[in-house]
Structures are given as structure tokens and as C-alpha cells.
Amino acid sequence: xxxxxxxxxxxxxxxxxxxxxxxxxxxxxxxxxxxxxxxxxxxxxxxxxxxxxxxxxxxxxxxxxxxxxxxxxxxxxxxxxxxxxxxxxxxxxxxxxxxxxxxxxxxxxxxxxxxxxxxxxxxxxxxxxxxxxxxxxxxxxxxxxxxxxxxxxxxxxxxxxxxxxxxxxxxxxxxxxxxxx
Length: 181
Known about the structure:
Blueprint: E1 2-6, H1 13-22, E2 35-45, E3 53-63, H2 67-78, E4 83-89, H3 93-97, H4 99-110, E5 115-120, H5 132-139, E6 146-148, H6 157-180
């Protein structure tokens, strides 16, 4: 399964990927040049069997947050994407406002894919400038669930990756069912 992380620069895409894949966090900021790719096998609830879990292998793509590069790299980056984590920064409201543009870039290549929004950097509560109402205003009309996350503490990181994977599996199941009828 191909999962893409998208959002403006310095929202924590690389840190979230690192936290999910290796369980670590690094305070240093290093600009992503182009894209970083990593992978992980993890388990999620099996949509076809109650109480069972299945292993999913995911390739996770982290694209740099520069809008110019988004346009330049979107064909290669988003091609074949099956799920997307849209990431914004709790201390920078403009990163929330830019999420629809990131989704539009992805869906222009990959089609309508499941998306989950992550309000990252919740560990910086004293500096937070994004409210739950801000998140609902952007996410609810688009049908995007959102989660508060912190790559630093690990808050909701695993559940975010699991949720977008579950949405993909459910969509695949619905697609198979509609083709069978």
C-alpha cells in the first residue's frame, strides 16, 4: 500500500514518518529535498473478519513542503497513492488553510483517495494557534477525519496511520462488492 504524507514545510511530515517507522524523534530540522520513502509492516483490523487483524505492508512517501516542488513532483509522488495523511502545524494556522490545495494536487493524480488530517505539534500547547473549530471548518465539509498528533511524544501517530489504512481497506472492499453485483 502506498501512503503519502503531504503538507507545508516544517509541519512535521518527516518526524511523523520517523516516529511511525522507527519509534524515534529528532529535534533537529533538516529540509526534505525531493521525497523520502520508507516502509513498515503493521497490523490493522481485518474488514472481512470480526476480531481479527491483518498485516499490511506500507510504503510511505514524504514529499518536501515547497509548493513549487509539489507541482513539479506531484505526478511521480502521488501516482498510485492509496491513502494520504494531510499534515498541518498547530502553531501555524496557514498550514491548515493549505490542506485542500495539497489534497487537490494528490487527487488530480491518484483520484479520490482516503485522507486523514493530522494536527501536529500538539506538544507545543502554549504556542497553539489552531482550534478544533478551525479544523472542523476545513475537514468536516470534505469528509476528512482529523486527529491531534505529536511526533515528539508519539500521540496518535500509530492510530493515524492505522486509520487511513483502514479507510483504504474499507474502500477496496466496497469497490470489490460493487463489482461483484
